[in-house]
Structure formats: structure tokens, C-alpha cells
Design a protein that fits this description.
Length: about 280
Amino acid sequence: MRPVTVPNADLHCHSVHSDGVLEPAELARRAHGNGVTLWALTDHDEVAGTADAAAAALALGMPFVPGVEISVTWAGRTVHIVGLRVDPANAELAAGLARIREGRAGRAAEIGRRLDARLGISGCLEGALRYALNPGLVSRTHFARFLVDQGHCPTIQSVFDRHLGQGKPANVPGRWASLDQAVAWITGAGGRAVIAHPGRYAYSQLEYGALFDAFREAGGEGIEVVTGSHRPAQFDEYAKVARHYGFLASRGSDFHSPGESRVDLGTLPPLPEDLKPVWYDWLE
Ligand code: AMP
Ligand code: MN
Ligand code: MN
Ligand code: MN
């Protein structure tokens, strides 16, 4: 019998090209140092870090998969769809991501106005922009870092709890891609679409079922089961979902920053053995 080796796959993390704090090459070294043997960079709505990530991974002898995490609006809420093994040069994918990034600028201005008013200060937008190393991609995380460093809130989490999280006054919903568009861009670019951290959305049971059906119908193939954005109890819950819907399973830390992220690259438990991993045909 051929020995089965399970790769230490980490297929979800963020660099300075979105809301992470490390350069792609620094992430590659950190992943490799932690024993990752199959790695993807999945910046929000952006693939600009791919070339640096690929070069750094190659130099380390660590298999690399180009990826992206696309912001989607579905049934009135934001869902993240990860695309893995996409061609970052694909024109439709690039155009779709560029359109989402453009929409972020106006949203950020409104977030800035609301935070200024709530905190009785000025300059929240300018402050957040100083943290956005990719000026074309301002996210809530950049506002949160600014407010923590300015002493307005003790932790990133507290900024989301008070101001920026779902239902909070400075939460401005993005006008993101549709589910069908995101899946079509990913599959059109040769990639595999995966629902990111499915446990994080505040849908009803009925809506969750409809989301999984719609995603599969659109050509989506996978869900994240073991992710840094799930509580360990949710690993089992979404393993069951993967079995029920016949989804491929993915694993990724969702690492953003050494100081902020609870889960480091490459340190999560393995996927349940009976699940078919999203990388099943990538290492042959
Ligand atoms: P945006 O794309 O601008 O809506 O920002 C989304 C990002 O904010 C996510 O990718 C996370 O990095 C971060 N985020 C969202 N909710 C929270 C939370 N409750 N605590 C900490 N970070 C969060
Ligand atoms: Mn993020
Ligand atoms: Mn996400
Ligand atoms: Mn993420």
C-alpha cells in the first residue's frame, strides 16, 4: 500500500495587500517555519501579492496556490468566498475584483464620517488610510487598528463590538459581488470556489441551507471546515455539512497579524480523515 501523507495545508491568510500586516514573503517564511507544506495567500478582493508570495514559496520549496477571498452580498449579509488555484491574470476576475475595491472607497468615507461623529473627533478616514498599505483596499480592520493605537478602544475586538461589527452604528454594509458572480470569476479563472468560515454568518437554518444549495448550483465546490475563524466545536458541525452536501473540505488559519490573530499559520488540527480535501488532486 502506498503511504498516505497528509500535507499541512494552510489555504487562507492575509498580507499587507489587504488587511494583514506582513508582506507576502514574510508570510511565506512564517508558514514554512511553522511546517506548512501547501500554502495559499487569499487577500480580500485583491491578487496583487501573488507574484511575491509565489517567488518566496518557490525559494523555500513550499508548494503554493494563488488565491483570493471575495466579498459577496447574499440575502442581505456579507459572505466571503475563497477562490483557490485561480489564475491571477484572468481578465474577468481582475475586473471584478477592481470593481469591488472601487466600491470600498466610498464605503470607507462613510465609515469615517460615522466614527468621527460617534467619537467626537475628526480624521478617522485619514487615520485608517495610514494603516492601509494598499491604498486601494481600505477595510474595517484598518479603522480598528487606528482607533486602538489612538487609545479610543483597548483591542481590535472591542472596536468591532462597539462600532464596526454587524448591527453596530459605524458598520456600513459593502455593496459587494453577487454569489453567482464571485463563483463564476473563480471558476472562470480555473480555480475552485470555497465558502470561507461558514460558521461566522448570522443566517437562519433555512437561509444556510439555501446558501449551500445556491453555492453548489453556481459551481461552488468547497467549504472551510477547520479554520481559525471557527470555534473547535464548529469543526465537527461543518464536517457534517461537507458530508451532507458533498463539498470538498478546506483548512486555513485566516492569519492576519502576529499581534492580533488567535491562530497562527499551520497550527490548526487536521481535517477529519473521511473528508475529501479541496487539494485532493493538486499534489499528484
Ligand atoms: P471589511 O472587508 O472591510 O468588511 O472587513 C472585514 C474584516 O474585518 C475581516 O476580514 C476581519 O479581518 C475583520 N473583522 C470582521 N469582524 C471582526 C471581529 N468581530 N473582530 C475582529 N476582526 C473582525
Ligand atoms: Mn480580514
Ligand atoms: Mn473572511
Ligand atoms: Mn480572511
